[in-house]
Each structure stands twice: as C-alpha cells, then as structure tokens.
Amino acid sequence: MNVTHPSPRTTRRSTPSARSARSVRTAALAAALAAVLLAGAACSSKADGGSTDDAADGVKSGPGVSDGTVRLGALTDLTGPYATLGKSIVQAQQMWADETNAAGGVCGRDVEIVVKDHGYDVQKAVTAYADIAPDVVALPQVIGSPVVAALLDDIERDHMLTFPQAWAASLLGMDPVQVLGTTYDLDMIAAVDFLTRTGKIAEGDTIGHVYFEGDYGANALEGSEWAAEQAGAKVLGQKIKATDTDLTAQVSALSKAGAKAVLISAGPAQTASLAGVAAARGLKAPIVTSAPGYAPQLLKTPAAAALIAMVHVVSAAPAVSSDLPGVKKMVADYNEKYPGEPVDSGVLSGYNAARLMGADLKKACEDGSLARADVVEAHRSQKNADTGLGTPQDFTLVTAPASRSTYVLKPDAEAVGGLVGVEDAHKAPGVDAYLAARG
User: Fold this and answer.
1) What is the pLDDT of residues 380-394, one digit of tens each?
2) Which residues, at least 6 apart from 318, have a Cβ–Cβ distance to it below 8 Å?
3) Which residues contact 134 (CB under 8 A, 6 or more apart)?
4) Is 142 within 8 Å of 151 (Cβ atoms)?
5) What's the sign of the alpha-carbon dihedral 81, 208, 251, 412?
6) Residue 11 to residue 176: CA distance in whole angstroms
7) Model pTM?
8) Exposed, middle or buried: residue 185 (CB in 10 Å: 0-12, 13-18, 19+)?
C-alpha cells in the first residue's frame, strides 16, 4: 500500500484526494477498522518516504533509516562510457562513508552505500532504481543526464534527495534533485569567454562544437551559441552519439569550415579522438571541454601529446592538483585507501557530493527527522554550503545553478589527476544576464 506525503517545497504538487468520513457503529466494526489501520501502517510504502516512525533516539525515520543504519544509493556507470568516472566516484564516496563511520556515523548511525551499475543504459537504470528505492533515504550519485531524466517522476514521488553526476539545466526546478556546481550551458559560456579573452577567437570567427545528442549536448550547445552571439562569432554544431569514438568526419567538416576553435561536450574517448585526429590533420584549433569530457587516463594514450598541446577544461571544481587544503587532504587519504588508483576529477566530484549529503543528513537529524521529505527540506535550507573542495554553493534557489563560477584547467602528465589550474574560479561575463533571460 502506498502512502505519499507531498513535500511542502516541491515545484510540482499533486492534490491529495479527499477522504470520506466513515462512522463506526458497533464494536465489531471498530475492531475491524483498527485492524485495517494497523495493517496499513505495516505496509506503508518504503519507497515514497511515507514512514515517519520515531526511532529509539526520538529522531523521525523513514525508508533507508533504522536505529543503527542510514542507507544511501548510487546508480552509477561501471561498464559503459563513463566507467572510469563511475569507479572514481564510487570509491570516493565509500571513503567518505568509512571516514564518517569511524567518527561516529550520521545521527549516531553507520552509513551504508548500495551501489548499482547501469552501464549508462536508461532501462537498466530504471530497473536498478526500483530495486534500491524502497531501502535508501537519498542518492548521492546518479550518473547520466538521460538516466536522471528518466527517473524524475519517481524521484519526485519518492521525495528522494538526488545528486546527479550530470549537469544539464533541464534537471533544475525540482526540490529533490540538486545539480551541484554549474550547468553545461554555463560551462560553455565560460569556455567561449576564455577563448575570446585569450585571443584564440575573434569577431566573425567560426567555433566548432562537437556534442552528444540528448540533454548533455543540447544544453551545452545553448550556452555556446548564446556566448558566440555575444562575441560576434558563430557556432557550427556537430552532433554525435555516445557510441561514436572516431571523429574523423567531424574534424574534416570543422576544418573545411575554417573553425578557429572547437568545443566538445562528450566523453573522454571522444575528446581524445577529436584532439588526435585534429593534430594529425593539421587542424591546430584550441579545444575546450567540460569536466565529463576529460580523464587523466587519456594521457597514457597516443593522443596524449595532442591533448596537452590543444585542450583546456572548464569545471566548477578545481584540479585535484590544487593547493586547497581540503583537496590536498582528500588526495592523500584517497592514495592511502586506494594505492595505485588514479585520483581524477571523479574522485573530487564524488567526495564533494558525499560530504554535502552528509551535511544535509546532519542538519535533518538536528531538526529531528531523517524522513525523506525532511532531508530534502534540510538540503534546501543550505545557502552557503562549503566543503573546502571548491567554491561555496547555494541550494536555496531550486531553479538556478548552485554555482556560477568556473575554473579553467589544462592537461599535465606530471600533475596529480592529470590537470593543473590555469584560472581560478570566476563568473564569466554575461552569465547573470543569460540566466535572467531564461527565467
């Protein structure tokens, strides 16, 4: 039996149906009604946040919460195009859980993370969500814009606080779903601003943009086209699929069009192909990607020299080679826990998300409830969330990105994580105007 409790803050609400009053005229009917009510309480859906029983410590609980445990879920990619990213995020979040448990847990409870691999397959992800949803309180990791998009109705119904490892602006606007950092369009506005300020493009130039079909690429293209228009340039788009790993045709088209720079909103394999083919074909245009388009493992491939010479990365997070004390400690702890494993942007992204989730759970506990809707409410009360791993974030504005500031990084084979900082976090000119124009 399902019992749903609408969140008081959600942007889409359903009106509860009115319940007709029933009179109880005899002792037999009263007993029967009591039995039905008890049965109803027992079968109260664990998947919708409906259970609000008090735990032994007086904290209100719900799905994924017992007197001794808080269970979180991760819908990740360990076998698909973002397998490297998925592995890093999973390990970083498990490191956070182990650290948290060693320090006494969350609200006096041990943290467990249930991991499901969807391989970047939407249908597998939907099935995996159905498997774990009844038994977790929140999701500190869901990889993939199309995956999150397919789950939005379920997430909203279940009041499941969810941190996508995806940054499409289409995921904004729902209380339980929090895009961390910037969105893809803001990253591409920052990329065009970087290319303009550094003299790599000028008025009248053509900028190529290679992008995945779907929300990721479409949202990134919105940003690049808007920024190019402000700069007096134009964008030549090249749409590809996640399965496309040879970008020879795209490079040929961009070369023929005289592109002075290329943006890419795809995966690491596509960035490597773009840089490698462009270098081989003599297209020496600078390339800028966002964080999902780069992995340090690329520096061990034949495309390494081209990547180092041609590529920059725009990201809401600093490089893991940063001198920020919080980042340095995270790197040292990760190296100790997972010796020999690469420390990439996925480690920083996953660890940051886990720490933010931990802060939300702590706030919810202090407020007396770990029920799902109350965890969401605790999260949305955070205006200046700062883990020491980058710029502070504002989670109170449901329809706006949590951050508007972007770092510029570049590949470096000698650096931890294969990236070094070029520019510290800053808000690109026009970002506020762009967001205001889009409501």
Assistant:
1) 999 999 999 999 999
2) 324, 327, 348, 389, 390, 407, 409, 421, 425
3) 45, 46, 47, 63
4) yes
5) negative
6) 10
7) 0.84
8) buried
CA dihedral 40, 41, 47, 50 (to 10 degrees): 120
Residue 313 has which token pair?
């990365």
Instruction: Tell how many helices (H) and how many strands (E) occur in the chain.
Output: 13, 11
The amino acid at residue 206 is T
Quote the tokens at residue 224.
């690049």
Question: Which letter does DSSP use for residue 221 in this model?
Answer: H
Report whether 259 contacts 247 (CB < 8 A).
Answer: no
pLDDT in tens, 323-363: 999 999 999 999 999 999 999 989 999 999 999 999 999 99
Whole-Å CA distances, 197 to 200, 203, 231, 234, 421: 8, 12, 10, 16, 17
Quick one: average pLDDT of 32-59?
Answer: 48
Burial of 112 (0-12, 13-18, 19+ CB in 10 A): middle
DSSP 64-118: TB-SSEEEEEEEE-SSSTTHHHHHHHHHHHHHHHHHHHHTT-BTTBEEEEEEEE-
To 5 degrees, how large is the angle CA 105–CA 391–CA 193?
150
Map out the domains of the chain with their CATH numbers. 69-181+321-380 (3.40.50.2300), 184-315+406-437 (3.40.50.2300)
∠ Cα 263 226 208 (to 5°) = 25
Structure tokens at 30: 């009263």
User: In angstroms, how far is CA 154 from the centroid of its own chain?
Assistant: 17
Are 161 and 372 a contacting pair, CB within 8 Å?
A: yes
Residue type, 9: R
- Backbone torsion region of residue 246, taken as left when φ is above 0, otherwise alpha when ψ lies between -120 and 50, otherwise beta: beta
| Whole-number Cα distances in Å, 99 to 1, 80, 93, 239 | 37, 29, 10, 42
